[in-house]
Design goal:
Two copies of one chain form a homodimer.
Chain A lengths: L1 H9 L1 H12 L11 H17 L3 E6 L3 E4 L2 E4 L3 E6 L7 E7 L19 E3 L4 E3 L3 H20 L7 E7 L9 H8 L9 E4 L11 E6 L1 E10 L5 E2 H4 L6 H10 L22 H5 L8 H8 L9 H9 L3 E8 L10 E2 L2 E10 L5 H19 L4 E5 L3 E2 L2 E2 L5 H14 L4 E5 L4 H10 L2 E4 L15 E3 H20 L3
Parallel strand pairs in A: 5-8, 5-9, 9-20, 10-19
Antiparallel strand pairs in A: 1-4, 2-3, 4-8, 6-7, 7-21, 10-18, 11-15, 11-16, 11-17, 12-14, 13-15
Helix pairs in contact in A: 1-14, 2-4, 4-14, 5-13, 12-14
The structure holds zinc ion (ZN) (4 copies).
């Protein structure tokens, strides 16, 4: 690998310049007026794939969408293959080429769509720098390095780049499911580089994600909003009932109060327990992130276990009640409470919905209210956990050790990355989350950055990962 | 009085025509672009007062206000005197010449600012018909009738007409307080005609209003909104704490759960109990008004006592939480819960605020939360109750009996009419609420109307009330 590392180091400035090129394409998927730029970014990638000799380049168009009152085309899901030999394993890599919105006046210190490298800090600023432009183009520079060195790529590579990740990945799942038996039929493992190190010092591999079940609890009484002077004290008020029910779901210290909800939660094994040693994380990280000292748990282990592998329930708000500044003495006629449960193995969305409904039904009966209620759970995203001893993870672990001279943290995420589960279920192969950036990169926030170190060592990491996948015992 | 009644009946069509004239002036005080019309309505009244020989006509200008981004002049509070003799009692009458907004497309069957009289139903439609244009101009027709008949008015009359009642009566209190010892110094009693019969069949006199204390309960944790995937289960969530506290304030059946809150509530006396017999009201009225069957109490007595003379607590909503349609998995950083308490004699806003704060403090402590809270109660409007045996009420009762051949219901209102208390406190004289319209007039709603019967008999009622005030034993 030494020659590859040397090549990468020698071309580091070029990689940074090219990152500047893609940051300058404001491929914001959530803004109809920017849609042309998303397409431009897709075209840029296709040109690069062509230049590098990828074959079977296919742009899958998922159709149209309604956005901000316009009907516009969805950007393509780009598939491409780099074939290196039928005897070699096939690695599918996923990334997204769209970005979050960004405006200088939101608090950016530089123009968000102009790359700025701070030499003194080593930080490269720009929207999309870490999420997810550096990771996706890095795969290209790996292929380019092997070509330049006259070496065969150790694996067959398939890329899957989408342009709608920041806006719900519209159309992606259908394409993955359709292509599972065709374009993706030889895939042996999947690697997604679209999350972050746990801290700022140490690389990690991510092996788990929580699921999410969303609930709408609607309570109705009068046919229209009432004046509290005229009706207060004489009618059952839907908002009063809603506060009663929703207050019974979770305690201030985060304990879910729905009977049976913890029954399906997998027990913490000894092997799992050991993964919580020496993590690159301290409570100060969460205090800095929230700018408060309002953490519930006193240890890193407990805090991360409650983020990663125990369920949580958050109340989000109410539709139909008074929400503006000032004082208004309305009795709302119909209110919809919103809450969600982050789920973990071995909970299922179906069982969670059942338990929530049973509980809400029982609590509503206790109120003795003449109002009526309805509870709906539109969709439940399942949790995901991978076997950290599978060869895909072993290969990645070895790659980290080679490039960074340290063992990676093995982490989970508290949120969901739905495409992970789609790949897992559609292909039935091991999926690995291999992050490139750091926890303080500010993806989705102002002053998004990636450190030059993370970017350049990240390219080496991806190359080494492919080498290890080729040689690891399967 | 027969000659007065005859004159009124003979001129009924003329009174209706003139009502049409004032309905056609869209004096909406809540819309900056309509402010000229409010002034036009004030000018119309001043011209009438002049024509009828009122003296000391004064237009008090309270200054300017900011409305919809414009700085505009507040409409005048108009004072005028009709002197009939120093030995006669002086009656101060109040009304307002501004109206609520109205648009045909809101669901009006006729143009809201064009009067339409339905001959078959006897209803006169138009914005402001019942609230409060018919009542205020009726006082003018009483004076006009006495003049036409060559009779002296039995009392000295002072009118106080404002143009900002529908928009918070800005500037009015200061003027009343300032004029208490000057313009209003000889006032013996006050009569306000700006509310409605309890039902649709029987006139009423109104002797009580509830007060209102508004509360803002703010709970803060993190410095910014958090993602529930990343932070759910690891931090104390302000919204969870808010639901816990607010759910403890009131039960589904309207019982306020704050210890001590009922201690100052006046006991129901036997005399008061008797006022709840034979009221023109049934539970069907409240079911029709709310288009639901969600009433708490089974009897008219209990229902009206809880509207009029017991306190109630309503939750209104939350500022800072998610309120839009759809699903969003935010943990709000800072939320402000809004609720209000309708108060009754002998509760005071000060004592209510104290009890609420003590309770919230105790409940917040129990949570064991690291979040912080703040509770504010910006202003408390006091409740008001009059002595129904005072001569002002006796005079009005006799007047109703003469005009309608029935005894009036003695009612309260669950809401507040703040000017009532201002007059009471600034002048120290008996204040009477003497409604003209019916409960189904739709003030503030679409298709506002007044029945021709209520308008014309109402003019007779006001005239008779003045006669009775002059002769009643004081
Ligand atoms: Zn991303
Ligand atoms: Zn993102
Ligand atoms: Zn009014
Ligand atoms: Zn009004």
């Amino acid at each position: 690998m030494d020659s590859v590392y040397k090549h990468i180091d020698a071309h580091a400035d070029e990689y940074v310049t090219r990152l500047g090129e893609v940051i300058a394409i404001p491929s914001v998927s959530g803004d109809a007026s920017m849609r042309d730029h998303v397409f431009a970014m897709g075209a840029w990638l296709q040109a690069q794939l062509k230049r590098l000799g990828f074959s079977d380049i296919e742009a899958h168009h998922p159709g149209k969408q309604q956005l901000q009152g316009k009907e516009i085309d969805l950007p393509p899901v780009i598939l491409a293959s780099y074939k290196s030999g039928t005897e070699k394993p096939t690695v599918l890599v996923y990334g997204h080429y769209d970005v979050q919105p960004a405006l200088k006046e939101d608090g950016w210190k530089y123009e968000p769509f102009t790359m700025v490298e701070e030499k003194e800090t080593g930080r490269i600023y720009g929207r999309g720098s870490t999420d997810d432009k550096a990771p996706i183009i890095s795969w290209l520079w790996v292929v380019e390095a092997y070509q330049a060195l006259g070496k065969d790529l150790p694996v067959n590579l398939i890329v899957c780049f989408e342009g709608m990740e920041e806006s719900g990945s519209e159309g992606l799942d259908e394409i993955i499911i359709k292509e599972a038996g065709r374009y993706f039929k030889d895939v042996d493992c999947v690697c997604i580089s679209d999350n972050y190190w746990l801290g700022t010092e140490k690389p990690c591999l991510t092996y788990g994600l929580r699921g999410v079940s969303y609930f709408f609890l609607e309570i109705s009484g009068p046919a229209k909003d009432l004046h509290s002077g005229v009706f207060g004290g004489t009618v059952h008020e839907p908002l009063t009932d809603l506060f009663h029910i929703m207050s019974k779901l979770v305690s201030s210290d985060g304990k879910i109060l729905i009977p049976g909800i913890y029954d399906d939660v997998a027990l913490v094994t000894e092997a799992e327990e050991s993964l919580y040693q020496n993590l690159d994380f301290s409570l100060a990280d969460i205090h800095n992130a929230t700018e408060s000292q309002t953490t519930i748990h006193a240890s890193v282990r407990d805090t991360l276990m409650h983020r990663w592998r125990f369920p949580s329930l958050s109340l989000h708000g109410i539709e139909g009640a008074f929400y503006a500044p000032g004082a208004k003495t309305v009795i709302p006629a119909k209110v919809v409470g919103k809450f969600s449960i982050r789920s973990v193995p071995n909970q299922t969305p179906e069982r969670i919905a059942e338990l929530v409904k049973t509980f809400v039904d029982a609590e509503f009966s206790k109120l003795g209210s003449k109002n009526t209620y309805k509870i709906e759970s539109p969709h439940g995203g399942k949790s995901w956990v991978a076997d950290v001893n599978s060869w895909n993870f072993v290969a990645a672990k070895k790659a980290v050790e080679k490039v960074f001279n340290t063992s990676p943290d093995l982490t989970r995420e508290g949120g969901s990355i739905p495409v992970t589960l789609t790949f897992q279920e559609a292909l039935g192969k091991s999926v690995l989350l291999l992050p490139m950036g750091r926890s303080d990169d500010g993806a989705h926030s102002t002053n998004e950055k990636i450190d030059r170190y993370n970017y350049i060592e990240g390219i080496k990491l991806l190359a080494t990962y492919l080498e290890e996948v080729a040689t690891v015992e399967k």
